[in-house]
Fold:
Amino acid sequence: MNKEIAITAYKCKKCGKIHYPFHDRCLECKGREFEKMHPEGDATLLAYTVIFNLPWGFDQRFLILGVAEFENHVKAMGQIKADSVDQLKTGMKVKPSWEPIKKQYGEDVYGLKFEPME
Amino acid sequence: MRDVAIIGAGMIPFGRRDEDTLMEMLAYASLKALDDAGLGDKTVDAVYVANMGGGMLQHQSAIASSLVDRLSLLPAAAETIENGPASGASAIKNGLLAVASGYYDYVLVVGGEKMREVTGWRATDFVATMTHPQAEYPYGITLPGMAGMFTRLYMEKHGVTREQLLAVSLKNQEMGTLNPYAHVEMALDRGGIFDSPHSVVNNPVSADPLHLYDLCPVSDGAAAIVICPLEMAKKHNKTPIHIAGFGQATDTQTLQEREDPTDLKAVSLAAQKAFEMAKLKPSDIHVAELHDAFTILEIAESEHVGFFKKGEGGKAAAAGKTRLGGQIPINVSGGLKARGHPVGATGVAQMVDIVWQLRHELPKNRQVKNAQNGLTVNFGGFGNNVLAFVLKRVE
Ligand SMILES: [Zn+2]
Structure:
């Protein structure tokens, strides 16, 4: 079973600007009322990297990370399911999923993952 | 507002300083600046201490209160300023405003950080706590990771090449060998890190497309300055250096919320404000210390402050225009890349290096001939809190 992507984005009721993460006031018009929305559809990879010096809490050799934009224009960071950055390019389609991204105190922490579709 | 000048500057060698505590490093740098100013036993009115990680790395708080006690500067006002890797410049700004307002006359600003006390992955995690606690940090993103993503976008948009990044790395590392305060004192050769079979081993990918030698080291260190009103500075022993302009600006915490993630708006705005206040233009600057935590940042900042047009900074670096003797010498100290980047110390260290340049105190192989005006840029977060200062030599 695929888990639902548990990210909430916020669309300004006044000007329509989409925010993720949350801001108390709209970055565009300072509006304070937002309509909650969830990322929808597949995504487009906007930026990516692979890091080899991982922070405390990650017990693995490397980590591929990126930022992608969903079909409804929510942008978010996630881990990328690939063996190498050679499989990636800016602007490619990626399939989002909600999966364990690390372990904390023995428990899985869930977050966004993107898998290349090309 | 009163004009404010720097009358004392001091630094301790950066690197791995296992023998010193954070407090000792802050004290040594402070005494050097106080002595340089010739203040003798005279106290100062206020002390601003820049430090980012004392709470997390040394399990220590209220550092400024402890420092004034240790230095016998009581009952001077004291506070610690935490503003990420821009803490140093933020502390200077607070001191500057306090003196400019007329409230204080003599202020000591000192920045320091002890990062080598913890393992590399703890230090990496400490710096990563600047990222967004829900939208970024849980994924394992690090500051080099942010820089990696930024670099690829910058390469795609502005045509920056690995060779151009390499030019920055080689220049700064070479200058570091001449600087007795620098953490990294090893000269690099191009083959060793770029186009020989050994380079794969010597200079592995760290945060693609950035390699190990595109990143600054993790360092311990401290630096300090003493400031006072320009009018009063003239009676002290050193050539006064006027803090002629400053600017500060912020930007979104996450890169994804910037309209154009390659546009470092906070750098442009901070520099513009500093230049306006100083009534100078980028072409009036003779020497600059830019925040090169990653080689790409030296190139991007050199464009955003107005030394070069967008897309020209990389070419300028590769052509030697940013070397000593070039059009605009950048990071003659070796920069963060070679001097090191003890986060709280960096903004103050940049200023100390420019003070030495404008006083014409450096040895010939590091001195920008007859430098009159200097610029510093201290870059916090991933460009979400940036300060710039324009300094002028006062004859
Ligand atoms: Zn709005």
